[in-house]
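pls design
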C-alpha cells in the first residue's frame, strides 16, 4: 500500500504483534488516520524474520496470541503447545486479513530518520524510499530483539562457504544435508536450532562461549480436554495473565527453598521439570532470584540432569554452566538439546576449555589455534536488545538530541514507554518496561491499551503534546535499577544486562517490577488516573 497522503494522526513503525494491535486500536477504536511502516515484506515482525530451523515460541500458545479478539480466541486452533514460526506467521496474517489491517501498512519500507518539529508538535519521518510524512504521534513497535548482533570476527569476508544469521534466515530455507555446519552461540535460538540442524548436517560443530541452563520444553499436542477447558474460561485466563507477574500462568511458590527439605525440593523440582516450559524458571521457590543458596539448589538439579543426559563426561562438564546464577540469563527451552551432543556427528568447542573464536578463515573457524572446517556458518549470536532497534531509527527529539546521546550511559525512559526530550513518542515494550521478562503479547497489549487511552485523553483535554518530565524519568530509572539490584539478575553477563554487545554500557534493560507486569499495569493506570503524573501536557 502506498499513497500520496503525507500527514497522519499517528505513524507506527513495525507490523509485528505490537504494530498490528496498535493500528487496530488507534484506527478502529479512536478513528485516527494511521500509517504503519514495515521493513519486511509482510506482517509478522519477529515471526517474519526468524525462520531458522526449530524456531517456535517458548510461551504456551494459548496465551501467546491476541486476547482482544475474543471470537478468534475461540476459533483459532493451535497445532501444538509451542507452535513453529510458520504457524505463528499464519496466525498474524490471518489477524491482518480479518481486521483489514494491510491497507494501512506500507511494506518493504524502513524508517531511516525522524525529527520532532517543536513549532507544530509533529514528527517528520523519512523512509528508505526517500519519502517523508508527518504525524502528530510516533509509536515505535520495532520489537525488543530485532537489531541483529553479528560479531565482528576477523576474516568473515574471506570465508568460501555460506553464512547466515538466525534472525535474517533465507525465506527459502537452507539445506544442511551432507554439509559441515558450524553454529556460533548457545542461547535460546541456538538451543532450538542445534538439534534440528544436527539431524541434517554431516558434521555439526557448536561454538559455545557461555554454557546455558536449559530445561525441557515438552512440546507436543495439547490434550483436547485442556484446550476445551481453557476456551471455556478464556475470560478467566486473560484476567489472570494480565494481573500476573510474568504474563503467564506461572507463579512462584510462596516458600523459601531454604525452608524445604532436600526431599521436598527434589519432589518440586521433578514436578516442574516434568511439566516443562517456563515452570522451572518462573514457578520455582520464591527466593530463587534473591538467594544464592536457594538458586544453587535449582542450578545443581539442572547440572545433575546434564550429567545424566550427556554420555561423555568431559562434554557434559563443558556443557555445565559456571560462574553465574541459574535463571539470570533468558531460559532456553530445549527439545533434545543435551541429547544432541551424544550424536557422533556433533562436536562442542567451548571457549573456556578449547579456546575462544579467533577468526573466520576461508575454510571454517579458528578457535584456540585450531581450524574447524565448515561449509556453512550459522550465527546464533542474538541481538542488540531493546535499545538497538530504537537507536537505529535516528530519532531527533527536542533541540535535535538523539537517543544515542540520551542513552550514552544506558537507556533512560519513563515507564519504558516514553523518553524525556522526545514529545509525542511512545515506545511499545521499550527499555525499562516489563517487556522481555513477560509473555510478550501481554506486555504489548498493556502498552497498546495505555497509549490508546492516553491519546484519547489528550484529545478530550484539547492537548496536542505530551512529554515525560526529566524528574519523573530519573525517578523511574532509579526505581528500575533499585528493584533489580536486589536480585541475582545483575550478576550475569546477559543481554538483559547489555553485556553481549562490546562497548554497550552495562545496564539492566527491562523492568523487573516488584509485582511484575500486573503491578506495572496498575502503576501505569494510576499515573493515567492522576492526569498523567510525571508527564507535561501542552
Ligand atoms: O541470542 P542470545 P538468541 N563470540 O544473545 C553467543 C529470544 N528468543 O538469539 O552467552 C562467541 O541469547 C552468546 O554467548 P554469551 C529470547 O528472549 C525467543 O539465542 O553471550 N559467541 C550466546 O551463546 C532470547 O533470549 C524465542 O557468552 C558469541 C549466543 O551467541 C533472545 O531471543 C526463541 C558472541 C547468543 O545468545 C535472544 O536469543 C529464541 C561472540 N562474539 C530466542 N556473541 C521464542 O520463544 C554472542 N555469542 C520466541
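designed seq:
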Amino acid at each position: 500500500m502506498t499513497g500520496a497522503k503525507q500527514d497522519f494522526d499517528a505513524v507506527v513503525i513495525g507490523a509485528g504483534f505490537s504494530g498490528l494491535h496498535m493500528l487496530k486500536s488507534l484506527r478502529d477504536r479512536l478513528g485516527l488516520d494511521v500509517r504503519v511502516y514495515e521493513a519486511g515484506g509482510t506482517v509478522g515482525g519477529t515471526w517474519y524474520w526468524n525462520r531458522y530451523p526449530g524456531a517456535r515460541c517458548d510461551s504456551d500458545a494459548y496465551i501467546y496470541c491476541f486476547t482482544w479478539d475474543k471470537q478468534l480466541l475461540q476459533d483459532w486452533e493451535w497445532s501444538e503447545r509451542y507452535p513453529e514460526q510458520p504457524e505463528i506467521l499464519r496466525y498474524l496474517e490471518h489477524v491482518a486479513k480479518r481486521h483489514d489491517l494491510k491497507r494501512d501498512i506500507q511494506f518493504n519500507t524502513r524508517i531511516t530518520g525522524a525529527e520532532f518539529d517543536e513549532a507544530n508538535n509533529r514528527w517528520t519521518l523519512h523512509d528508505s524510499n526517500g519519502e517523508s510524512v508527518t504525524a502528530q504521534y510516533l509509536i515505535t513497535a520495532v520489537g525488543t530483539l530485532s537489531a541483529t548482533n553479528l560479531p565482528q570476527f576477523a576474516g568473515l569476508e574471506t570465508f568460501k562457504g555460506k553464512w547466515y544469521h538466525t534472525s535474517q534466515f533465507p525465506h527459502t530455507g537452507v539445506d544442511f544435508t551432507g554439509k559441515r555446519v558450524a553454529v556460533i552461540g548457545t542461547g535460546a535460538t541456538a538451543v532450538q536450532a542445534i538439534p534440528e540442524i544436527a539431524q541434517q548436517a554431516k558434521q555439526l560443530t557448536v561454538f559455545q562461549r557461555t554454557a546455558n541452563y536449559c530445561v525441557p520444553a515438552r512440546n507436543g499436542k495439547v490434550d483436547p480436554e485442556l484446550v476445551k477447558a481453557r476456551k471455556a474460561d478464556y475470560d478467566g485466563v486473560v484476567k489472570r495473565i494480565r494481573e500476573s507477574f510474568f504474563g503467564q500462568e506461572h507463579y512462584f511458590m510462596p516458600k523459601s527453598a531454604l525452608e524445604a527439605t532436600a526431599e521436598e525440593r527434589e519432589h518440586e523440582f521433578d514436578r516442574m521439570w516434568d511439566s516443562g516450559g517456563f515452570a522451572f524458571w518462573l514457578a520455582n521457590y520464591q527466593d530463587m532470584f534473591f538467594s544464592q543458596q536457594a538458586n544453587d539448589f535449582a542450578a545443581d538439579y539442572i547440572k545433575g540432569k546434564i550429567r545424566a543426559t550427556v554420555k561423555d563426561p568431559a562434554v557434559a562438564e563443558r556443557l555445565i554452566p559456571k560462574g553465574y546464577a541459574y535463571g539470570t540469563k533468558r531460559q532456553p527451552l530445549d527439545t533434545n538439546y543435551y541429547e544432541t551432543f551424544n550424536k557422533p556427528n556433533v562436536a562442542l568447542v567451548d571457549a573456556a576449555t578449547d579456546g575462544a573464536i579467533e577468526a573466520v578463515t576461508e575454510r571454517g573457524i579458528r578457535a584456540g589455534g585450531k581450524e574447524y572446517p565448515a561449509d556453512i556458518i550459522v550465527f546464533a549470536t542474538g541481538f542488540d536488545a531493546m535499545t538497538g532497534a530504537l537507536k537505529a531509527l535516528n530519532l531527533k527529539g527536542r533541540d535535535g538530541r538523539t537517543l544515542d546521546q540520551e542513552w550514552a550511559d544506558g537507556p533512560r525512559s519513563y515507564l519504558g514507554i516514553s523518553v524525556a526530550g522526545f514529545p509525542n513518542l511512545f515506545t511499545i515494550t521499550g527499555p525499562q518496561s516489563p517487556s522481555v521478562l513477560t509473555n510478550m503479547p501481554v506486555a504489548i497489549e498493556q502498552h497498546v491499551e495505555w497509549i490508546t487511552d492516553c491519546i484519547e485523553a489528550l484529545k478530550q483535554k484539547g492537548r496536542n503534546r505530551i512529554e515525560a518530565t526529566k524528574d519523573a524519568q530519573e525517578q523511574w530509572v532509579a526505581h528500575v535499577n533499585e528493584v533489580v539490584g536486589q536480585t541475582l539478575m545483575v550478576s550475569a553477563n546477559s543481554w538483559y544486562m547489555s553485556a553481549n554487545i562490546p562497548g554497550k554500557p552495562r545496564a539492566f534493560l527491562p523492568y523487573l517490577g516488584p509485582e511484575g507486569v500486573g503491578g506495572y499495569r496498575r502503576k501505569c493506570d494510576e499515573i493515567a488516573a492522576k492526569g498523567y503524573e510525571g508527564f507535561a501536557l501542552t
